[in-house]
From TrEMBL:
Gene3D superfamilies: 1.10.10.160, P-loop containing nucleotide triphosphate hydrolases, PCRA, domain 4. It catalyses: Couples ATP hydrolysis with the unwinding of duplex DNA by translocating in the 3'-5' direction; ATP + H2O = ADP + phosphate + H(+). Transmembrane segments: none annotated. Its EC number is 5.6.2.4. Residues 312-575 form the UvrD-like helicase C-terminal domain. Keywords: ATP-binding, Helicase, Hydrolase, Isomerase, Nucleotide-binding. The keyword Oxidoreductase does not apply. InterPro entries: DExx_box_DNA_helicase_dom_sf, DNA_helicase_UvrD-like_C, DNA_helicase_UvrD/REP, P-loop_NTPase, UvrD-like_ATP-bd. This is DNA 3'-5' helicase. GO terms for biological process: recombinational repair. Residues 18-311 form the UvrD-like helicase ATP-binding domain. ATP binds at A39, G40, A41, G42, S43, G44, K45, T46.
Length: 692
């Protein structure tokens, strides 16, 4: 068959090329045996995967029969664009049309949602099911917890968030509850019996209300694949299934893959065990390590050892950090990108200074011609960027924040979405409860009663419109019912109807929130976002599964051609690269996060997290070490300032690989500023204020 252009093939190294052409030219349509590419950061795994998909299309594979799964929708759409660029060289104009047909690409959860909708009736699901995000799920868990009386009688019963985490982990790891409790939540082990009861109540509530949570999207899909006829039919949709970042998949995802491609024929998975950072969500590195055995003896394994991303000093430091790991399959990488610039370890007094240092450096880089977009600030958890966001806003440096605290988590956005969701599925109690509470004169008891009545009724709209609500609700109730009726009739059409919701919601917004003007701007932005989706249902599904990124202040989403700095959690930075990378709070107590309770496996995962962060950098890397930082209620330390020291993952033996400096630079003779200083600014108070 046809192959990639010579120019493309020449650029690839031998291992990459072998992976790209694997199976091409085979008799039966080029569907090859199972292939694993396992290799370190920046070795071109994702790039190779894109070339492989392009190669398949060029050789005549039907793009509609290619399933490409990555860990975020952003990563999937970037991959699709890359495939198109590569195809264009060989196919010319036809490339766009063909790669548009690469419709089956996305995350496991996103693809699962589509599959389940398609087969809903046959699976006994109502096709109008709504999807609960984590917060909704926790709310529902709480309702059930309350109904069962656990929260009242048992003061020390785990919180709704903990209950949901335990449930989710049990489901995703496909492990027995007692095992999960013993291994991961020993302090909750005494509640096993109650938790069992709670979880079964939770599952029942979801079914009655016709909602699925995130985990259900995988769980139901995996269950479906357990049935031979479904497995044949669903697996038969695709000739090729390709998965990036395979090290961060869990048991359910592996079950789904083997269900789709039982002998592994047509299956390609790609990953790096040294970058496994999602075990807290039950991901298991065993999936990638066991792949060759799972499909023995037909599986082919390709390793890559050349890094194309980072300069030699950066790579040397990253290699050294991961070199101290207890266990690892992938080997050290090499590069020919020489440089004299070692990565820097920069000591600053506190988080306020850290923010100033980063802002200074970012602007300085921009002076030398590096766009803001070529620079990224990485941190462990979302709230660590608080002081930096303040500083950037003060200096008018635009930024986009990936991961962590989401636009969609804000109460006013959730209220709007609840209206759309409830109109779609009137059995969704979390949405209905949320909406009804907005109405003046409607309390929890009334809302419950109304929801019960609607749930029991064949015509819930009719029931709600006649519902005997309290006199004080006489003003708001009819308007609410009218809105629902309008949404359900679909008369205004999408996306105009979201404007209708906003008009209905506006007086509530003004009554509930003092800062309603700011929030109103968010809602207008939500309307803009909505306009990008073809239908209400697609909007709700995709928004829940993969929310848009938060942006600086109230500026709204910057236009694509504008320049802005990237702020991201390390977890969300997976797979990406920037010319200059800053890692905040590279201190013990942050990376690794919790010194008190970390098991050795957990500590090892934190080491890999630092490795992921360091290997995002192409030309310049700054690890910042504040001498004081603020911990946010981590279990062993509580909410307070602590004196911190450099992360244990860079012990004295590795220091020579870094350029160490203090900031601000001190005048000659003044001596380095080490040790605790006077508190100049209570960043902690400021940060608590920000996130309240
Ligand atoms: P990660 O583990 O971080 O996901 P990766 O292994 O997926 O990394 P890529 O993101 O695919 O690596 O590639 C890293 C960089 O190297 C990219 O800028 C890519 O364009 C470049 N690259 C990959 N292969 C080659 C090659 N053969 N020649 C030149 N550049 C390459
Ligand atoms: Mg990659």
């Amino acid at each position: 068959g046809k192959t990639l252009s010579a120019a493309h093939l020449e650029k690839l190294n031998e291992g990459q090329r072998a992976a790209v052409v694997h199976g091409v030219g085979l008799q039966d349509g080029g569907i090859a045996g199972p292939l694993l590419i396992i290799a370190g950061a920046g070795s071109g795994k994702t790039n190779t995967l894109a070339h492989r998909v392009a190669q398949l299309i060029i050789a005549g594979a039907d793009p509609r029969r290619i399933l490409l799964m990555t860990f975020s929708r952003r990563a999937a759409s970037e991959m699709a664009k890359r495939v198109e660029r590569i195809c264009a060289k060989v196919l010319g104009d036809k490339a766009g049309i063909l790669t548009d047909a690469l419709a089956w690409s996305g995350t496991f959860h996103g693809v699962g949602a589509r599959i389940l909708r398609e087969y809903a009736i046959e699976l006994g699901l109502d096709p109008q099911f709504t999807i609960h995000d984590r917060e909704d799920s926790a709310d529902l868990m709480n309702l059930v917890r309350h109904d069962l009386g656990f929260s009242k009688t048992e003061k020390r019963f785990p919180t709704k968030g903990t209950c949901l985490s335990i449930y989710s982990r049990t489901v995703n790891a496909q492990a027995p509850l007692d095992e999960v409790l013993r291994a991961n939540y020993p302090w909750c082990a005494a509640w096993e019996k109650e938790l069992r009861e709670l979880f079964s109540g939770y599952v029942e509530a979801k079914q009655i209300q016709n909602v699925l949570d995130y985990d259900d999207l995988l769980l139901y899909w995996a269950q479906t694949m357990g049935d031979a006829t479904f497995a044949d039919e669903i697996g038969g949709k695709w000739d090729h299934v390709l998965v990036d970042e395979y090290q961060d998949t869990n048991r359910l995802q592996a079950t789904i893959l083997t269900g789709l491609k039982p002998g592994g024929r047509g299956l390609t998975v790609v990953g790096d065990d040294a970058q496994a950072i999602y075990s807290f969500r039950a991901a298991t590195v065993r999936n990638i390590l066991d792949f060759p055995n799972e499909f023995s003896p037909v599986a082919d394994v390709i390793t890559l050892d050349r890094n194309y991303r980072s300069t030699q000093p950066i790579l040397a430091a990253a290699n050294a950090v991961i070199g101290l790991a207890k266990e690892r399959f992938t080997k050290n990488l090499w590069t020919d990108r020489a440089s004299n610039e070692r990565p820097r370890l920069v000591t600053v007094r506190d988080e306020a200074d850290q923010a100033r240092f980063v802002a200074d450096e970012v602007l300085e880089n921009r002076e030398t011609g590096m766009r803001l977009k070529d620079q990224a600030i990485l941190f462990r958890t979302s709230h660590h960027s608080g002081p930096l966001e303040v500083e950037l806003t003060r200096r008018n440096i635009p930024f986009v924040k990936f991961g962590g605290l989401k636009f969609l988590d804000s109460a006013h956005v959730k209220d709007m979405l609840a209206a759309l969701r409830f109109a779609n599925n009137m059995r969704d109690r979390v949405a209905g409860f949320r909406l009804m509470q907005l109405l003046s004169g409607v309390g929890p008891a009334t809302a419950q009663a109304a929801l019960d009545a609607a749930a029991d009724s064949a015509n819930p709209m009719e029931t709600l419109s006649r519902f005997p609500c309290p006199a004080r609700a006489q003003a708001d109730w009819p308007k609410f019912v009218a809105l629902l009726a309008a949404l359900r009739s679909g008369a205004s059409g999408w996306p105009a109807e979201i404007g209708q919701v906003r008009v209905w919601y506006d007086p509530h917004l003004e009554r509930i929130h003092e800062d309603f003007e700011m929030r109103r701007a968010d809602l207008l932005q939500l309307e803009d976002i909505a306009a990008g989706y073809p239908t209400r249902e697609r909007f709700l599904t995709e928004l829940t599964l993969d929310p848009p990124d938060a942006t600086s202040g109230q500026a709204g989403v910057p236009l694509l051609d504008e320049d802005y700095l990237i702020l991201s959690t390390i977890h969300s930075a997976k797979g990406q690269e920037w010319r200059s990378v800053f890692v905040l709070n590279t201190v013990d107590g942050c990376i690794p996060s919790d010194l008190g309770v970390g098991t050795s496996d957990e500590i090892e995962e934190e080491r890999r997290l630092l490795y992921v962060a360091m290997t995002r950098a192409r030309d310049s890397l700054n690890l910042v070490v504040p001498q004081r930082f603020f911990t946010h209620g981590q279990s062993s330390t509580g909410d307070r300032h602590v004196y911190a020291s450099r992360t244990r993952f860079i012990p004295a033996s590795l220091i020579k690989l870094f350029e160490c400096r203090a900031w601000p630079m001190v005048a000659a003779g003044a001596g380095p500023h080490v040790g605790p200083r006077q508190l100049r600014l209570d960043v902690g108070a400021r940060m608590r204020g920000m996130w309240r």
